[in-house]
Design a protein that fits this description.
This protein is of the alpha/beta class. The chain has two domains: 137 residues, ATPase, nucleotide binding domain (Nucleotidyltransferase, domain 5, 2-Layer Sandwich); 192 residues, 3-Layer(aba) Sandwich (Hexokinase, domain 1), CATH 3.40.367.20. The protein is built from twelve helices and 14 strands. It has a six-stranded mixed β-sheet with strand order 9-14-13-10-11-12, with helices on both faces. Strands 3-2-1-4-8 form a five-stranded mixed β-sheet, sandwiched between helices. Strands 5-6-7 form a three-stranded antiparallel β-sheet, with no helix packed on it. Strand 5 and strand 6 form a beta hairpin. It is globular, with a radius of gyration of 21 Å. It starts with 5 loop residues before the first strand and ends with a helix.
Length: 351
């Protein structure tokens, strides 16, 4: 089969933003050679709540992308070989109801731009996890280095990915031997979780009072409630009495004017990372991502994050040796969706 450029439409749909991009993928064919890197040809971000449904924002994205292509070639027509939509919610087949926005995605109902032959719906943190396989080097920061040798990360070990934005997402990257598929080699499979809606442990006297603070507002402590942008607002209000938007709290953190909030939030984030790493036995390491740390990375650079991450009576030594990375790329969800699409095209062609 001729190795030609394929077009992949990627979408990353969250409670705050709906991001779309068109990628070119070279070398996706059946000759066994590795495909080339993805090239982003166009991208645009829309406010999720500015549209009444996914079909409307997808239509707007298609119109904008086609107009962009016509600027270079008046006869250009938007075409996609494959489309992958990453949505913030539990995916059931080809449908997902968003957890932090009042609409759903249904690929059997909603038209996709570019009339793609192949399409898939995946969890948004499945896409975030896929992006960790090929991160942009300037967006991937070491929080805790790998301990070299047999005590460090295990080749092929599970990688725990987590991050908070409008909500809080979790995903496991597992290595699956391709020999099971009779194609040789190995590949990574993203296994998303809805752990953002599980209970979050609040410990000790002050945290018990914070639990009461949340429950008085009808909010059970979950990672979605505690670690999201809204969680940063609530924690700062509890500690200081000041009710501010998350971006303003983040600005105070940047300026060193919210030390208690910064340390407490870092401790909560470290606890969530530790729990997820132990729950999935993340011998390949941990990656922290999401909008909260993209805007305010100090919240996980703070020493309290790693101190809490390593706190375990039974597995503290193991946790202290695992690599922990910070992924600061707002395009990660799009890149991951496009990588998933490239895998679909390769599988179709028998590569």
């Amino acid at each position: 089969m001729t190795r030609a450029r394929r077009k992949i439409l990627a979408a990353d749909i969250g409670g705050t933003n709906a991001r779309f991009a068109l990628y070119g993928a070279d070398g996706v064919g059946a000759d066994g050679a590795a495909p080339g890197p993805l090239q982003c040809l166009w991208t645009r971000t829309y406010p999720t709540r500015g549209f009444a449904g996914f079909a409307l924002v997808a239509h707007a994205a298609g119109e904008d992308c086609a107009a962009h292509l016509r600027q270079k070639d008046p006869d250009a027509v938007l075409h996609a070989d494959c489309a992958v939509v990453a949505a913030a919610g539990a995916v059931r087949g080809r449908r997902c109801t968003l957890t932090n926005a009042p609409w759903d995605v249904d690929l059997d109902r909603d038209a996709l731009p570019g009339s793609p032959r192949l399409s898939a719906l995946i969890n948004d943190f499945g896409a975030q996890a896929m992006a960790c396989l090929a991160p942009r080097p300037d967006k991937f920061e070491v929080l805790q280095p790998d301990s070299a040798g047999p005590d460090g990360a295990e080749p092929g070990g599970a990688i725990a990915v987590l991050g908070a934005g409008t909500g809080c997402g979790f995903c496991l990257l597992a290595e699956i031997p391709r020999s099971l598929l009779q194609t040789g080699g190995t590949r990574r499979l993203p296994l998303p979780s809805e752990g953002g809606h599980a209970s979050f442990p609040l410990l000790g006297g002050e945290e018990a009072r914070y639990r009461e603070f949340l429950e008085a507002r009808g909010l059970p402590p979950t990672p979605d409630v505690v670690l999201s942008g809204g969680g940063l607002e609530r924690l700062h209000e509890f500690l200081t009495g000041d009710r501010l938007p998350a971006k303003d709290v983040g600005e105070l953190v940047h300026r060193g004017l919210a030390a208690r909030t910064e340390a407490a939030f870092a401790r909560f984030y470290g606890r969530a990372a530790r729990n997820w790493a132990l729950q999935v036995l993340a011998l390949g390491g941990v990656v922290v991502t999401g909008g909260v740390v993209e805007h305010t990375p100090e919240l996980v650079r703070h020493p309290a994050f790693l101190e809490e991450f390593r706190t375990s009576r039974t597995y503290g030594d193991l946790l202290a040796r695992l690599p922990v990375h910070l992924h600061l790329d707002p395009a990660a969800g799009l890149d991951g969706a496009a990588l998933f699409g490239r895998d679909l095209l390769a599988a179709e062609s028998g590569a």
